[in-house]
Amino acid sequence: MTEHTIIENYQRVMADIAAEATRCQRSPDSVQLLAVTKTHAIDKIRQAYEAGARDFGENYLQEALVKIEQLADEDHPMKDVRWHFIGPVQSNKTRDIAAAFDWLHSVDRLKIARRLSEQRPDSMPALNICLQVNLSDETSKSGVALHEVGALCEAIAPLPRLHLRGLMAIPAPTDNYEAQRAVFRPLSDLFRELQARYDQFDTLSIGMSADYKAAIAEGATIIRVGSAIFGARNR
Ligand SMILES: *Cc1c(COP(=O)(O)O)cnc(C)c1O
């Protein structure tokens, strides 16, 4: 995909965000666009940066660490960017995640949260985290069940080096707007309930290339968009 196309795609998604937010009587800047760059090369990430992207999401730790280092190190370092880890987290990855990322969207176990809090370097601010919720009840998928989210929040909120910001989900794909909204709704209801209990709760990370408009209508504050900006992935 050419440079031209990535910039155009980025602008089109930004315009969609503004239009859908306005339609839902939300402020366009209440929805943040996270550019999901997994599998995409450094030059494409730079193009998205040129287009205005400052938040980037990666799923695979080794790939992400290489990119983060390269993009900070070159002659033209990308400044003021925030790196978000959005992939599954195994225990043996927590130390590297805690040292390299600003955000982690996919916490679904207390054990992982404790490790991250212990391993977050003192020189960095607390790690921003979201709890990943399983909305599709597929036992193979990661994420905590809706009815267990409250208890997990209570256990994680006091951890000193984590900043519990909200909830994230990756529902099974559905292809019409109303059906997509219906899938997100139990999560947005729970999110509002928890917001009343936790002052720092301000992030609902839902919506990908195929369903970000429905997500915005259901209160998304971060949408995670890959293919609509960068085209199809190779793997
Ligand atoms: C890959 C990925 C995305 C982006 O998916 P697209 O459909 O390409 O927009 C968003 N969130 C997570 C967790 C992902 O793994």
From TrEMBL:
Domain called Alanine racemase N-terminal: residue spans: 26-233
Residue runs in coiled coils: none
Record PTM N6-(pyridoxal phosphate)lysine, positions in chain: K38
Signal peptide interval: none
Entry keyword set: Pyridoxal phosphate
Database matches in PANTHER family: PROLINE SYNTHETASE CO-TRANSCRIBED BACTERIAL HOMOLOG PROTEIN (PTHR10146), PYRIDOXAL PHOSPHATE HOMEOSTASIS PROTEIN (PTHR10146:SF14)
Function of the protein: Pyridoxal 5'-phosphate (PLP)-binding protein, which is involved in PLP homeostasis.
Similarity-based family: Belongs to the pyridoxal phosphate-binding protein YggS/PROSC family.
Full protein name: Pyridoxal phosphate homeostasis protein
